[in-house]
Amino acid sequence: MKKRIVFMIGLASLMMLLTGCTEVGEPITKESTGIWNSYIVYPLSWLIIKISELLGENYGLGIIVVTLLLRFVLLPLMIKQTKNSKAMQALQPEMQKLKEKYPSKDAATQQKLQQETMALFTKYNVNPLAGCFPLIVQMPILIGFYHAISRTRAIAEHSFLWFDLGSPDPIYVLPIVAGITTFIQQKITMVGMTSNPQMAAQMTMMLYIMPIMIMVFAFNFPAALALYWVVGNIFMIIQTWIIKGPDMKKVTAESAGGAKKK
């Protein structure tokens, strides 16, 4: 888990560097140069503006629609990640047997353990790195949203409900909702995946770390970005609920059975 957290922080830092955060103060237009501006920021800015114009120049609704469109585009990747996570969970007993088979910490034994573990992944068509793919894909989109909002005057200066899209939520409703929906989404994701004590402890830690991180960011970032998080989280909650429906019913039934025995 420590390696995964370090990887996530390192990836975020790398993305922040590669996406040209020094350009935040520069307006984004079709004349803006550079791969980042031309293929990420300007297309997002253009898409939000065009959809908002179709909705009566309501940029808040435009951001909601674009968020949903992006989630639908990423849906196959997220479904694959969920199925891969379930497959990884199913392999935990086999992986534990391999660890018991090769308990020694010497280089030769550990190499043999890694070889058999990878053979196990190959046999069941499981990718241990699949959980990182959605993060890798979503990171530039998330930062691109921040740039598109802050560097497009029409978006940054527009008001929606009680807040200005280009400024932090003045009454902190969106950051709090973003944190709560992140917690719910993480909680639902954990259903049926906590049979391994070590994995359960790791996921429980992330269950509380992620919502706090999102809330801290949302308190300081433009409200439009918090709006993106909230809408995306609600979409993910519904998506995960549908995909993991059988697992959730099974866990509920087992919990009910356990309660009756008591």
TrEMBL record:
CDD domains: 5TM_YidC_Alb3. Its main location: membrane. It holds the Pfam family 60KD_IMP. It comes from the Bacteria. It is a multi-pass membrane protein. Residues 59-244 form the Membrane insertase YidC/Oxa/ALB C-terminal domain. Keywords: Cell membrane, Chaperone, Lipoprotein, Membrane, Palmitate, Protein transport, Signal, Transmembrane, Transmembrane helix, Transport. Signal peptide: none annotated. It is found in: Cell membrane. The chain crosses the membrane at residues 59-79, 128-149, 169-188, 200-219, 225-243. The keyword Repeat does not apply. PANTHER family: CYTOCHROME C OXIDASE ASSEMBLY PROTEIN COX18, MITOCHONDRIAL, OXA1. Required for the insertion and/or proper folding and/or complex formation of integral membrane proteins into the membrane. Involved in integration of membrane proteins that insert both dependently and independently of the Sec translocase complex, as well as at least some lipoproteins. HAMAP family: YidC_type2 (MF_01811). Belongs to the OXA1/ALB3/YidC family. Type 2 subfamily. This is Membrane protein insertase YidC. The lineage of its organism: Bacteria, Bacillati, Bacillota, Bacilli, Bacillales. The gene is yidC.
